[in-house]
Amino acid sequence: MDIVERIIISEEDIQTRVQELGQAISADYGDEPIALICILKGGLMFLCDLAKHITSPVTYDFMSVSSYGDATESSGVVRITKDLEESIEGKHVIIVEDIIDTGLTLSYLLNNLHSRNPASLRICTLLNKVSNRKVEIAVDYIGFEVPNEFLVGYGLDFRQFYRNIPYIFVPKPEYYREDV
Ligand code: PRP
Question: Which of 10, 41, 90, 152 has the highest CB neighbour number within 10 Å of its CB?
């Protein structure tokens, strides 16, 4: 695709790592049921692939949290635009995210979900952009540490497009920067 400046994580590397994460989660939880909570929309692709590799019994639920709309920088404003359909009280919950950037979204979500009294609450993120953190977050399962660049693909959008691309790439600056 013309928009691709360079591929940061290939499809093959993503699939290998997702399988490893699924195996690690299965080893940790065994026969214990897990309530996977996917944070839309970015987490969807990851959830689907990850769940295939979890052998523990799983349920899904979905939550939509708006953090920074179509912009490329976080505003710090977080609000729930779609809530869970089921109670998580007494359940072993894993939040499934595509990326943790500033940590503001997850910081809000952790507080919010903790107050619903789950038996346990863990985080699984495919990408961790630790260099951009504004609040500290303890992350239980991490796919890849990534640099502080604009990343697109495999759930991550550019103006809502390219979420379906099976690899993660940096777009060419002329596509998103007005000064180039
Ligand atoms: C992205 C991502 C996380 C959040 C991380 O979602 O999926 O939810 O931003 O950023 P933070 O750590 O700086 O809070 P976004 O709001 O872009 O929505 P989307 O998943 O629908 O693209």
Answer: 152
